[in-house]
């Protein structure tokens, strides 16, 4: 199933209206930083929800508050990492200053809650949506703090520790719309948790792809290798420092990546077949690794 162009256009219009209808956000309504992304999480919200037969209006609301919260997280992440560029654009803090960027990020979070709380949907589902939003913010903050304090000892399993961090850091923005779709589709708690676990694994696979791009210095829309400059727990940097993994770090990373995708696809069998088709059309191309360099290549090559 291909996402209808008019559905995506409606999402983009509603997102733009959130900026234009707010006297503060209106000042940033034409800022390229907010409009140059792929809108993947919004598309994901709509495509997954359609597999469960949800109405387009409700899916647009899930997509809208997910995109607002995701953009807020990017604004704040750029401040934490002191990054000057994202999506080929100046970051908000670098262009407008730290104070304004912090406030814009906070306002985007508030707007996400506003959209969820004003939704014309069953009050019980609305309550689940706002609770899921609150949890997403909490988990994202926990992941960011863990990333700042990340330490790896000799006895630590690199993949296990990385997985736990990535579940919080990246997974939450993938799984927020999935959990909200599950509530709107009246799935039970066990079904929601299983579906969320599937997309959490895809999220970590995406994070590995993102780490690979940073490690190789070819990250789209960013001129510098942010992770190494900020000493962040990039999987490839972690493996390169391990005697056991460094000689074949790309192979080890690729195997871990493939295992996550295989486990996620196995978890899909309990759900509509249209969901598996959508995963192959939208998600797998998004999380796919690039062609790895030769085994002898390292950061200095």
- Global morphology: globular
Overall helicity: 55-70%
CATH superfamily: Farnesyl Diphosphate Synthase
Please report the total strand number as a whole number: 2
Q: In whole angstroms, how far apart are the ends?
A: 42 Å
Which segments are poorly predicted (pLDDT under 50) over 5 or more consecutive residues?
295-301
Give the DSSP E fraction (strand runs of 2 or more residues): under 5%
Largest sheet: 2 strands, antiparallel
Radius of gyration (Å): 19 Å
> From the helix content, strand content and strand pairing, which structural class follows?
mainly alpha
User: Strand arrangement, largest sheet?
Assistant: 1-2
CATH fold naming: Farnesyl Diphosphate Synthase
Task: Write a short abstract of this structure.
The protein is mainly α and 301 residues long.
Give short descriptive properties of this protein.
2 strands, 301 residues, two-stranded antiparallel sheet, globular, disordered C terminus, mainly alpha, Farnesyl Diphosphate Synthase
What does this structure look like?
It is a single chain. By secondary structure, this protein is mainly α. It has one domain (5-287): Farnesyl Diphosphate Synthase. The chain has twelve helices and two strands; from the N terminus they run H-H-H-E-E-H-H-H-H-H-H-H-H-H. It has helices at 5-20, 40-51, 56-81, 92-96, 98-117, 123-148, 158-184, 189-216, 226-229, 235-240, 249-267, 273-287, and strands at residues 85-86, 89-90. A two-stranded antiparallel ribbon has the order 1-2. It is globular and about 55 Å long. Residues 295-301 have low confidence and may be disordered.
């Amino acid at each position: 199933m291909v996402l209808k162009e008019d559905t995506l256009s409606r999402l983009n219009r509603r997102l733009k209206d959130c900026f234009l209808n707010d006297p503060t956000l209106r000042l940033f309504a034409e800022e390229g930083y907010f409009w140059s992304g792929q809108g993947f999480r919004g598309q994901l919200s709509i495509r997954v929800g359609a597999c469960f037969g949800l109405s387009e209006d409700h899916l647009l609301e899930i997509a809208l508050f997910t995109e607002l919260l995701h953009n807020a997280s990017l604004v704040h992440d750029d401040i934490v990492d002191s990054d000057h560029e994202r999506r080929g654009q100046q970051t908000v803090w670098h262009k407008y200053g730290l104070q304004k960027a912090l406030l814009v990020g906070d306002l985007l979070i508030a707007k996400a809650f506003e959209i969820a709380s004003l939704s014309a949907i069953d009050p019980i589902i609305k309550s689940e949506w706002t609770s899921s939003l609150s949890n997403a913010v909490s988990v994202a903050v926990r992941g960011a703090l863990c990333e700042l304090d990340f330490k790896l000892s000799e006895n630590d399993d690199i993949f296990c520790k990385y997985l736990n961090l990535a579940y919080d850091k990246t997974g939450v923005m993938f799984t927020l719309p999935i959990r909200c779709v599950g509530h709107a589709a009246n799935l039970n708690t066990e079904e929601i948790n299983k579906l969320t676990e599937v997309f959490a694994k895809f999220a970590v696979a995406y994070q590995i792809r993102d780490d690979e791009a940073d490690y190789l210095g070819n990250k789209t829309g960013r001129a510098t290798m942010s992770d190494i400059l900020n000493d962040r727990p990039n999987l490839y940097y972690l493996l390169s420092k391990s005697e056991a993994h460094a000689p074949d770090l790309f192979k080890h990373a690729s195997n871990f990546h493939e295992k996550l995708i295989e486990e996620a696809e196995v978890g899909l069998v309990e759900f509509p077949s249209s969901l598996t088709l959508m995963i192959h059309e939208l998600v797998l191309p998004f999380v796919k690794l690039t062609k790895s360099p030769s085994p002898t290549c390292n950061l200095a090559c």
